[in-house]
Amino acid sequence: MPPIALIFTVTGAALWVISTYFLGWGSRPAEGSGPDPLRTVGVAALVAGLVDIIQAVYIVAARPDPLGEQAVVLSGLVGFYGLFFTVVGVAAIWGMDLRPVGNLAIVVGVVPLFWWNFFAGGWLFRSILVVWAVAFLAVTLTVYARLSPRALGAILLATSVYTFFVPPVLLALGRAIP
Predict the structure, then answer these.
(1) Transmembrane: present as a keyword of the record (predicted)?
(2) Per-residue model confidence as pLDDT tens digits over 1-50
(3) For burial by CB atoms within 10 Å, which of 4, 30, 108, 162 has the most?
């Protein structure tokens, strides 16, 4: 099995931090003229993106069992998410325009749905693809002021728990991912 626990926990923690920022939890600078918390959120996103990209390269290079040649397909998906989190991190750290992030979110939300057959035989990963499509489209809607930041925060918080924490918790408990 590829190192999915690492991908899930690191990226899930970053998404948790992103979601709490949009919910307004610690989203304002400390009293006075403290540093912008969005920069810290950006660091978490950047680290997650880089971990995902490194893991995607590992998956395609090592082709761990039981994937074999299918590792190439999985690495593409992991790399897709890695790119997104890396771009979010860089944009947040340096205060860049988020509209390109919103545009990227459309592609990263829709194209992974074509991995549906890759996850045949398991309902959890398929449902994760759907949840992620909703979450990424919510990012786009928020960037273009069609959805409130708090609503996005709630969507991303639920997404972090369901899509990133449930799978590794199941594995840690010795259970198979359904």
Answers:
(1) yes
(2) 457 889 999 999 999 999 999 999 988 887 767 789 999 999 999 999 99
(3) 108
